Amino acid sequence: MDTLTQIASVIARHVSRDGFQATAIERVTLVRCSTVTVPMPNVYRPQLCLVAQGHKEVTLGERVFRYAPGRYGVVTYDLPVIGHVVEATPDKPYLCLYLDFDPVMLGELALRVPPPPGAPSPPVGKTVSDAGSGLLDAALRLLRLLDDPAALPVLGPLAEQEILYRLLAGPDGARMRHITFSQGRVAQVGRAIAWIWKNSRERFSIERLAVEVGMSPSSLHEHFRSVTAMTPLQFQKHLRLQDARSLMLVQGIDVATAALRVGYESTSQFSREYRRHFGEPPARDIARLRASAGFPVVA
């Protein structure tokens, strides 16, 4: 049995039903889904996502990232995405693990691990790559500790450190280091992202945001887009639309109220932008999602 198959076997054993499953390992979450799902908004935090079985697609701005068994994604900022499982069956469900990054552990390792050779990679906030044998072996060692609770407190941090080491020493190493930066353009973009998250329902200008993070408007626009695949105002619009969708779906509020609550002054403008973003008018989209309510949001 190869390493990836063993990883899938451990995940399947510890997640018997569709959905997310927290584990005894503090920053590890396991996911199982036995059917394809409708595209749904999600928020990716700085984390690793390793797919052991099945396929999914994640859209960030205009970029589409495709996951397959043995592929992993690295996220270095809080990003609004739309994702869905595109290949899964009850006999062969979609299985993956998420590892949230510990910035302290990552920062300590980044000081000890030399940067990977070659030109610095662009600070894009999300990537998808093929997992090497070293990363897969480390992930399997970490997951096996779920069956050895006595060893988990001692060996768990070591396995987690090895996973972070493999990422830092690999093709995503330069991007991983951005999480630890407190100075420079990358850190300023991170502060801009955090500011928009906090103030997503308020009107703002690029000029105001640039002042908040200490950049020129043109530099902010350029570096923000390189990280998120969106301009700051497009990023805010994505957050607002996803927020409104959740309000209508979960709380059952009407279109006009949702539009107003997330910061739109015009319901018609909200409906136009919603349709462009999600492919259907708000009421029809929510009705479709409710008809698919048995599908967990797992992407």
Automatic annotation (TrEMBL):
**Domain of life per record:** Bacteria
Which InterPro entries has this protein been placed in? Answer: Homeodomain-like_sf (IPR009057), HTH_AraC (IPR018060), HTH_AraC-typ_CS (IPR018062), Tscrpt_reg_HTH_AraC_N (IPR009594)
Domain HTH araC/xylS-type stretches: 190-288
State the Gene Ontology terms under molecular function: DNA-binding transcription factor activity; sequence-specific DNA binding
One Pfam family assigned to this protein is AraC_N
What keywords would UniProt list here?
DNA-binding, Transcription, Transcription regulation
The record, for PANTHER family, names: ARAC-FAMILY TRANSCRIPTIONAL REGULATOR, TRANSCRIPTIONAL REGULATORY PROTEIN
Q: What is this protein called?
A: HTH-type transcriptional activator RhaS
- The scientific name of the source species is Paraburkholderia fynbosensis
Q: What is the lineage of its organism?
A: Bacteria, Pseudomonadati, Pseudomonadota, Betaproteobacteria, Burkholderiales
